[in-house]
């Protein structure tokens, strides 16, 4: 079973697709691949070698824009494949500063000083 990208995009209220998402490889997450069966180990190895490994000490977290989750169900022997878009959102800051960090410029005509925005 699968869904076409046009069907997925049409079902979303606000879709976020831009070219910069696909400039770097996704973060690969494998779930339930720890079984001792040889075919499961082979599948895990195949998926791991499809994407470059990530050096956790040197990776720039701002370059990770996608996450790929592959989950194996041992009872049904089916794979579930999910591809997520990752968005970095500032937390714990004022609304005006959040807009500046997201490169959206707020309306400052009502403000007398920049400190009111911050």
TrEMBL record:
Pfam family, one: Brix
Molecular function in Gene Ontology: rRNA binding
Spans through the membrane: none
A GO BP entry: ribosomal large subunit assembly
InterPro entries documented for this protein: Brix (IPR007109), PPAN-like (IPR045112)
Domain Brix: 1-118
Residue ranges of coiled coil: none
Gene Ontology CC, one term: nucleolus
Subcellular localization, as worded in the UniProt entry: Nucleus, Nucleolus
PANTHER family for this protein: PETER PAN-RELATED, SUPPRESSOR OF SWI4 1 HOMOLOG
Name of protein: SSF1 protein
Lineage per the UniProt record: Eukaryota, Metazoa, Chordata, Craniata, Vertebrata
Gene name in the database record: Ppan_0
């Amino acid at each position: 079973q699968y869904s076409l990208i046009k069907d997925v995009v049409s079902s979303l209220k606000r879709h976020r697709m831009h070219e910069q998402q696909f400039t770097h490889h996704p973060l690969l997450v494998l779930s339930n691949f720890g079984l001792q069966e040889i075919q499961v180990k082979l599948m895990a190895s195949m998926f791991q070698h499809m994407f470059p490994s990530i050096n956790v000490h040197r990776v720039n977290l701002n370059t990770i824009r996608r996450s790929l989750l592959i989950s194996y169900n041992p009872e049904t022997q089916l794979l579930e494949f999910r591809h997520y878009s990752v968005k970095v959102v500032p937390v714990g800051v004022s609304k005006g500063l959040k807009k500046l960090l997201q490169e959206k410029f707020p309306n400052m005509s009502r403000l007398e000083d920049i400190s009111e925005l911050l």
